[in-house]
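Can anyone check this?
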Amino acid sequence: MVVRNSPRATSTPSSLSFTEILSLLSLTLASFGIIANTFRGDGEPLIASLAFSGVAFAASYSMIRWLGPTFMKAGLKGKDMSKVHKKEIPETMGAVCAVVYLLIIIVFIPFPFYKDIVAATSGGGNRDVVKELEHVQTGRFLHRFPHSKVE
Protein backbone atom coordinates (compact mmCIF):
# COMPACT_ATOMS: atom_id res chain seq x y z
CA MET A 1 0.00 0.00 0.00
CA VAL A 2 1.50 3.31 -1.11
CA VAL A 3 0.35 6.50 0.56
CA ARG A 4 0.55 9.55 -1.70
CA ASN A 5 -0.24 13.20 -1.13
CA SER A 6 -0.14 12.82 2.62
CA PRO A 7 1.68 15.48 4.65
CA ARG A 8 3.98 12.84 6.11
CA ALA A 9 5.05 11.50 2.70
CA THR A 10 6.01 14.93 1.34
CA SER A 11 7.65 16.32 4.48
CA THR A 12 11.38 16.78 4.47
CA PRO A 13 13.59 16.15 7.48
CA SER A 14 14.07 19.90 7.77
CA SER A 15 10.40 20.69 8.28
CA LEU A 16 8.63 20.34 11.60
CA SER A 17 5.70 17.99 11.96
CA PHE A 18 2.32 19.29 13.10
CA THR A 19 2.81 17.74 16.55
CA GLU A 20 6.21 19.39 16.90
CA ILE A 21 4.80 22.75 15.85
CA LEU A 22 2.00 22.54 18.42
CA SER A 23 4.34 21.35 21.17
CA LEU A 24 6.94 24.06 20.55
CA LEU A 25 4.28 26.74 20.17
CA SER A 26 2.58 25.76 23.44
CA LEU A 27 5.95 25.67 25.23
CA THR A 28 6.84 29.12 23.88
CA LEU A 29 3.47 30.65 24.78
CA ALA A 30 3.58 29.16 28.29
CA SER A 31 7.12 30.46 28.74
CA PHE A 32 6.15 33.97 27.61
CA GLY A 33 3.19 33.84 30.00
CA ILE A 34 5.52 32.95 32.88
CA ILE A 35 7.95 35.72 31.89
CA ALA A 36 5.13 38.28 31.79
CA ASN A 37 3.90 37.05 35.18
CA THR A 38 7.32 37.61 36.81
CA PHE A 39 6.88 41.38 36.35
CA ARG A 40 3.92 41.32 38.75
CA GLY A 41 6.21 40.38 41.60
CA ASP A 42 9.82 41.30 42.12
CA GLY A 43 11.01 39.92 38.79
CA GLU A 44 11.94 36.49 40.16
CA PRO A 45 15.13 35.61 38.26
CA LEU A 46 15.00 31.84 38.79
CA ILE A 47 11.47 31.52 37.42
CA ALA A 48 12.31 33.87 34.54
CA SER A 49 15.45 31.83 33.82
CA LEU A 50 13.44 28.61 33.58
CA ALA A 51 10.94 30.28 31.25
CA PHE A 52 13.73 31.68 29.08
CA SER A 53 15.25 28.20 28.85
CA GLY A 54 11.94 26.94 27.43
CA VAL A 55 11.99 29.68 24.81
CA ALA A 56 15.65 28.91 24.02
CA PHE A 57 14.88 25.20 23.60
CA ALA A 58 12.02 25.86 21.20
CA ALA A 59 14.09 28.34 19.19
CA SER A 60 17.15 26.06 19.03
CA TYR A 61 15.17 22.95 18.13
CA SER A 62 13.27 24.61 15.31
CA MET A 63 16.21 26.62 13.95
CA ILE A 64 18.45 23.55 13.81
CA ARG A 65 15.82 21.74 11.78
CA TRP A 66 15.18 24.72 9.48
CA LEU A 67 18.83 25.71 8.95
CA GLY A 68 20.20 22.19 8.37
CA PRO A 69 19.75 22.22 4.57
CA THR A 70 21.15 25.77 4.36
CA PHE A 71 24.31 24.71 6.19
CA MET A 72 24.67 21.71 3.89
CA LYS A 73 24.32 23.89 0.78
CA ALA A 74 27.04 26.15 2.17
CA GLY A 75 29.36 23.15 2.43
CA LEU A 76 29.15 22.79 6.21
CA LYS A 77 28.45 19.06 6.18
CA GLY A 78 30.13 15.87 7.21
CA LYS A 79 29.61 12.13 7.26
CA ASP A 80 28.12 10.48 10.33
CA MET A 81 30.96 8.06 11.08
CA SER A 82 29.19 6.26 13.94
CA LYS A 83 26.44 4.84 11.71
CA VAL A 84 26.46 1.88 9.35
CA HIS A 85 25.10 4.00 6.49
CA LYS A 86 27.41 7.02 6.54
CA LYS A 87 25.06 9.71 5.24
CA GLU A 88 25.95 13.40 5.19
CA ILE A 89 24.62 15.57 7.99
CA PRO A 90 24.95 19.33 8.64
CA GLU A 91 27.87 20.43 10.80
CA THR A 92 28.40 23.43 13.11
CA MET A 93 24.88 23.35 14.49
CA GLY A 94 26.41 24.52 17.76
CA ALA A 95 26.64 27.97 16.20
CA VAL A 96 22.84 28.12 16.11
CA CYS A 97 22.63 27.21 19.80
CA ALA A 98 25.35 29.75 20.65
CA VAL A 99 23.48 32.58 18.93
CA VAL A 100 20.22 31.63 20.68
CA TYR A 101 22.08 31.46 24.02
CA LEU A 102 23.61 34.92 23.55
CA LEU A 103 20.27 36.47 22.62
CA ILE A 104 18.49 34.87 25.58
CA ILE A 105 21.22 36.01 28.00
CA ILE A 106 21.00 39.58 26.69
CA VAL A 107 17.23 39.59 27.18
CA PHE A 108 17.57 37.97 30.64
CA ILE A 109 20.00 40.59 32.05
CA PRO A 110 17.35 42.92 33.57
CA PHE A 111 15.57 40.19 35.54
CA PRO A 112 18.08 39.66 38.40
CA PHE A 113 18.33 43.44 38.85
CA TYR A 114 14.64 44.29 38.45
CA LYS A 115 14.28 45.83 41.93
CA ASP A 116 17.44 47.88 41.53
CA ILE A 117 16.47 49.16 38.09
CA VAL A 118 13.00 50.17 39.30
CA ALA A 119 14.48 51.92 42.34
CA ALA A 120 17.07 53.72 40.22
CA THR A 121 14.74 54.87 37.46
CA SER A 122 11.42 55.62 39.14
CA GLY A 123 12.49 56.52 42.64
CA GLY A 124 11.22 53.27 44.10
CA GLY A 125 7.93 54.86 45.13
CA ASN A 126 9.55 57.94 46.70
CA ARG A 127 8.52 60.53 44.15
CA ASP A 128 7.23 62.95 46.77
CA VAL A 129 10.57 63.05 48.60
CA VAL A 130 12.61 66.13 47.70
CA LYS A 131 16.27 65.36 47.04
CA GLU A 132 19.13 67.71 47.69
CA LEU A 133 20.97 69.06 44.66
CA GLU A 134 24.12 67.06 45.39
CA HIS A 135 22.17 63.78 45.36
CA VAL A 136 20.46 64.63 42.09
CA GLN A 137 23.76 65.38 40.35
CA THR A 138 25.36 62.07 41.41
CA GLY A 139 22.28 60.01 40.55
CA ARG A 140 19.35 59.16 42.74
CA PHE A 141 19.96 55.55 43.69
CA LEU A 142 22.58 54.53 41.17
CA HIS A 143 25.26 54.43 43.88
CA ARG A 144 23.34 51.50 45.43
CA PHE A 145 23.09 49.48 42.20
CA PRO A 146 24.98 46.18 42.67
CA HIS A 147 27.56 46.67 39.92
CA SER A 148 29.72 43.90 41.39
CA LYS A 149 27.00 41.33 40.64
CA VAL A 150 26.82 42.20 36.93
CA GLU A 151 30.14 40.49 36.21
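Reply from J.R.: I decoded it. The CA atoms of residues 56 and 103 lie 9 Å apart.
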